[in-house]
User: What shape does this take?
Amino acid sequence: MFGLSPQELTAVGLSLQVAALAVVLLFPFALAIAWLLARRNFAGKTLLDVAVHLPLVLPPVLTGYLLLITFGRKGPLGSAFEACCGIVFSFRWTGAALAAAVMALPLMVRAIRLAIEAIDPRLENAASTLGSSPLKVFATVTLPLAAPGLLAGVLLAFAKALGEFGATITFVSSIPGETETIALQIYTLTQVPGGEAAIFRLATVSVILSFATLIASELLARRIKRRMSA
Amino acid sequence: MLEASVAYRRGTLDLEIDAAFGSGITGVFGPSGSGKTTFLNLVSGLLRPDRGRITVAGESLFDSESRIDIPAHRRGIGYVFQDSLLFPHLNVKSNLLYGFRTGFVKLDDCVSLLKLEPLLTRSVRNLSGGEKQRVAIGRALLSSPSLLLMDEPLANLDAPHKREILPYIERLSAQFGIPLIYVTHAAEELARIASNVAVIKSGRLSAYGPPAKTLHTIDAHDRFGRISILTAKRGRYDPHYDITELVSPAGSISIAGQAPGSDGTLRILVHATEVTLALSKPQGISARTALKGKVANIEITREPVAFADVALRGGERLTAAITRKALDDLRLKTGDAVYCLLKSVSIDERWFPAP
Assistant: This one.
């Protein structure tokens, strides 16, 4: 496809794999945080809101560095994960997924939070007067009504994770076949003479993937709007 | 049935209500912002009182002293909201069954009472306002609640739809024996369906009792809001003129049309602005009804209007709104014998059997 070389195909496959894992890792956290921000009032809510948005504004290289010192093999969390479950993040594709997840967090939380806030909270009140516990209200009213928004958030985060560069290269470096995703390979190619054709091929794939994901996300967002106004 | 002694203060609302409501339909009446809806939310558990006690059928749901606070989903109290709040992702039948609990309300009975059969498979998006509210009532009913709260269920409906829903509400309370608390700011609705009325004014319970005793105390400053309720026995029906005579100790009342049923007591609603006072029984006048009574109270407002409260023979009260000038011209004072003239056609034809 697009005349990609085996090396380039590996990078494309790795990008998809990293982005998929990132989104799967991220979803439960993003859902919980979004629900807290949309539906609960608690001390430190503003702080949580700000913290969630930090990856959006911090220099990505700094985010990558912070990941390196906490999730690196000698970092407090990195060593804990390695000791308890044998999971290593640094210089592994799992680390690339972690970096992508952190960078996509604000986008996913925002999309899910908007979807939950668009639901009339009185519908949830009505459900509780009909005998549903808070958990059942969430599962039978909040979740199904927010579903298109959740999916939109997942797709947006997936698109972001596909293109993540700065935090990834800082945290896990660019190792072909392990952490070298499309973005990282393009960067490598810019450093060598004669890489223009390969860059063009990868860029095409990258644009197509991002475009398709964003369009799907946008269509879903429109559907929510229609649904809520009905 | 419901005993509530609750205090709740937020923003400009300062609510402190001490109420003991019986079975049947209890109407809660009050102006906007008086705390009616807040009171329902406190009873249902959607809001938490600052302090107090709430007991339904002897079961304690909230007690700030003994730290009891049963959450809303375990209170077994049904709630019908002003805008039906049906679940948009479920069809009519799934909405109805959402809170279904095996109890004294069966799906078939509920569907036939509320005439929901043709709607069951429909999406809730394209129901009319009246249909939505019927589904919402059915949904609350099917959780077999020990108490049913209704917050202005008719407020968003036009007049024909109101007439469509009211009979269902009357019937469901009678058929299933569920005590019902019905919040509204339409006195006519309460005159029709309530066995007792609680009047709430700025967060306080200002009156409680049968509609005839409480409803005339409301809307003191608005002459069009003043109403009286009279009860009378059904008398003769004249098919030629299509007029029914009602018999009351103060005189006969003729009303347009044929009263429903064959006998029994009817309630009629009379607006204070429709009552003419006369010192003697007038001749040559089109008004067919002249009720005898004595002026029990005169209330003079700062506006051109005065309210004369007439104690009719037999003990019922009828309020007349007249101008202050008319009051002076007639030299009316407390204790004077008067005739209250009513135009038959001004009496609402939707009379109703007294509960």
About this structure: The CA atoms of residues 255 and 344 of chain B lie 5 Å apart. The first strand of chain B starts at residue 2 and ends at 10. The two ends of chain B are 18 Å apart (CA to CA). Chain B has a mean pLDDT of 87.
